[in-house]
Amino acid sequence: MTDLLRCALPVEPDLSLAEPARRPWIVNQALTGLAEARKSPAFATPNLARWFRKNRSLGSRDRRVVSEMVHGIIRHEALLLRAGARSPEDLARMWADIIAGERFEEMELATPAEDFATALNVPGAVATEWLRVLGAERAAEYGHCLTLRPAMQIRTNTIKITRDKLIQTLENEDVETVAVEGIDTALTVQGRANLLATKAFANGLFEVQDASSQRMCAALPIAPGTRVLDLCAGAGGKSLALAARGAQVTATDIREKALVELEKRALRAGADITLEQPSPADIVLIDAPCSGSGRLRRNPALRWGLTDLTHRETQNELLNEATEWVEPGGWLVYATCSLFERENHHPTPEGWSIIEEHTLWPHTDHCDGFYWRVMQRE
User: Fold this and answer.
1) 211-377 — its CATH code?
2) Burial (CB count <10 Å: 0-12, 13-18, 19+), residue 268
3) Which strands sit side by side in the sheet containing 206-208, from one edge to the other?
4) Strands (DSSP E) found in the chain
5) Which of 174, 209, 204 is closest to 218 using CA atoms?
6) pTM value surpassing 0.85
7) What are the catalytic residues?
């Protein structure tokens, strides 16, 4: 029988982390950080990052322990509460027990959905959907995957360099990378590295971009001169990837600060991207706002208030409005970093048909969770 309750617990103890996590000063720092995150759950991740930047009392080694502790408590909070934690101090102490090898073997199982929700610290409806989609065994594999540190992945900027040359260039800066199979621009960074401090980054030789979105960009039928409209461009990761393949990209977004960042990135990359109002294009891309449920490994605090309801109306409006900008014979592409069916499976606009669709899962595709659908007018 698949043990869904314990599927997200570490497989091996880590005493090098568990021992310092019991030090009173470390515990106090971690609980202070956790309280900072709880002040505004919807902005927990940026608030935590800001708190770490301002906390001058933490050295690099202690910073790592405190960070692991805060995010670990967030990941396992439901299990810790079910095991008897009644205070923040209990959460910290019992999380250290988990890292030291505690698996709560005496805890009785409940229903599969309840156990899975407890293991992942997600709402019951979320656990129920993922169990239905994956089945118990694959759901347990997914749960285990969420406990692992996700790899940092980068995209080779082929405007300036080949992937093989980038591997060597980064190696000269003591950054080891390996090629991602099946994506000719993608590299996975081995270990920890301050990528943004490298000369290679300053010279625009690569961008930080997960293999999931690189895979989608590589799948689109781009030829030199293909006109692409990126309707929700944000800071422009996909716009840059498509421009590097020869597309003529027009990018737009309601967030002006994001477009300012895109402009800086495009200048560094040597990419020609137009920032203006929408106009008809051969391919219209909607990277829609969503729950971000595919990024739980990277952003544990997304668990707080996780729901597939917040953005659905906006997603549906974008999907239907975007049809107006697709040239005859062109493609409409809808994408999210969500693993929720209700965010991904909106009705296809009337008069359009699905050419292909893909869902990527972290435990099977070795990337962030991601969905995209390609449509064409009938």
Assistant:
1) 3.40.50.150
2) middle
3) 177-179, 186-189, 153-156, 206-208
4) 153-156, 177-179, 186-189, 206-208, 227-230, 248-251, 273-275, 281-287, 326-336, 352-360, 370-377
5) 209
6) yes
7) 337
Q: Which tokens hold the place of 345? A: 């499976």
Going by pLDDT thresholds of 50, 70 and 90, the confidence category of residue 60 is: confident
Tokens of 122: 């997600």
Cβ pair 57, 24 in contact under 8 A: no
How far, CA to CA in Å, does 194 sit from each of 9, 174, 201? 29, 10, 10
Q: Which residue has the tokens 């971009």?
A: 209
Q: Where are the domains of the chain?
A: 15-145, 149-208, 211-377
How far, in Å, CA of 102 to CA of 3, rounded?
A: 15
Q: What superfamily in CATH does domain 149-208 come from?
A: Sun protein; domain 3 (3.30.70.1170)
Q: What is the largest CA-CA distance in the chain?
A: 66
Task: State the CB neighbour count (10 A cutoff) for residue 63.
Answer: 14
CA 139 distance to own-chain centroid: 18
Is there a contact between 147 and 8 (Cβ–Cβ < 8 Å)? yes
pLDDT in tens, 27-59: 999 999 999 999 999 899 999 999 999 998 888
